[in-house]
Amino acid sequence: MDDLLVKETDMLILVAKTEDDVSHLEVHIYEEDTDNLYVHHDVMLPAFPLCVEWLGFSKTEDSVGNLAAVGTFQPEIEVWNLDVVDALYPHFILGEETEAEKRKSKKAKKSAVRHTDAVLGLSWNKAHQYVLPFLAILFLLVVMVSSVFFAG
Predict the structure, then answer these.
(1) Do residues 95 and 116 lie in contact, with contact meaning Cβ atoms separated by under 8 Å?
(2) 25 phi-psi bin (left φ>0, alpha ψ -120 to 50, beta other)
(3) What stretches of 32-144 adopt beta strand conformation (E)?
(4) Rounded to an integer, what distance in angstroms lies between the CA atom of residue 76 and that of residue 96?
(5) pLDDT value at position 115?
(6) What gap in Å lies between CA 139 and CA 133, rounded to an integer?
(7) 122-135 pLDDT, tens per residue?
(8) How many domains does the chain have?
(9) pTM score
(10) What are the pLDDT digits (tens) for 33-67?
(11) How far is the C-alpha of 93 from the C-alpha of 74, rounded, in Å?
(12) In which domain, by residue range, is 72 found?
């Protein structure tokens, strides 16, 4: 049972990999005092992972939660709760289409509000950690505005 507990002194290493057309996000634990490295648990991913970013965030100030944002060939960003060992689904998804958007014709103009291609890179803003988990719409707008600003 102690192997399932992540201690404050443990270091997490995230590995996104694909073997035989099955993609996984592995959570490795490194115990520095005993020089021990092992796979704590893994999460099966629905798409080929292109990038991963650890998000150290929690709703309370006295603890740190372990979340991982995963970018794939899909336009959405999946955020997985690494503190849940047998998670079947992401904790939440950024940029997910609404039911109304899914019903629209494929010939409709691409959305100017959301990302529409593969997510090739992710970066967690350590100065404003509350932006990504709680203000997902603001995060998407910041990405959109910054891409317009830097593009021209």
Answers:
(1) no
(2) beta
(3) 36-45, 49-56, 66-72, 77-81, 92-94
(4) 6
(5) 67
(6) 9
(7) 877 777 665 554 33
(8) 1
(9) 0.71
(10) 889 898 988 999 988 998 888 887 666 666 667 88
(11) 11
(12) 2-151
